[in-house]
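My current task is to audit a protein record that another person submitted. Alongside the sequence sits a line of tokens, each denoting a local backbone shape. Where you disagree with what is written, explain briefly why. This is what I was given:
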Amino acid sequence: MNTCECQLNKLPAHTSDLTLFQSLPTTHMLRTLILEHARIFAFLSELSSVEQQLESMDSLDDNPDIAVQMRYLVDHLLRSERHHIREENVLIRRLDKMKVYAPGNDIRKQHDVLRVKKRELENLVYRIHTMYFTDFKKEVKQAISHAVSGLQEHIKLEDSVLFPTALKHIPEDEWAQMKKECDTIGYCCFTPNSKTELIEI
């Protein structure tokens, strides 16, 4: 897996079932997806904090570093593409073939919508120096709010419905091959390592 300074050794479990997580082997693909969700949730929490900081700012001079912080966070949200591809091409595709009821089509559609929201946010963030700050603040606050709420609800759906459904219906002897397929697709720079802990909040 790729390594990045954005990796954390401990992540809060915002939506995941800790019992399910702790029952999985350290190399299980669902464990990796759950940890990635936790890391994405942490990015979203930071982005929400940025949104609150913007509320009290009258100009970029009040906090020049906020532009760098926003670019960092949005860039890492965009780097989650391989996470989505693994979910669609490895996990959901198998459930589709098995004709198991799961929110597969809904999740694919949500991925498409979320890609657009993240790109819109990226475009705004990189225009911070070319817009009137009052206009930027209004537009970026709305874009952050939509992206954060959309991603949080999406993660909750996968953690609470998709992953337990997959674990229940996919035969145990298939998961090793699925892990190999995930390895071929690749991981995100922020993908936590196998020793990362998920902690209750």
In short: Strands lie at 10-12, 197-199. The chain is about 65% helix and 5% strand.
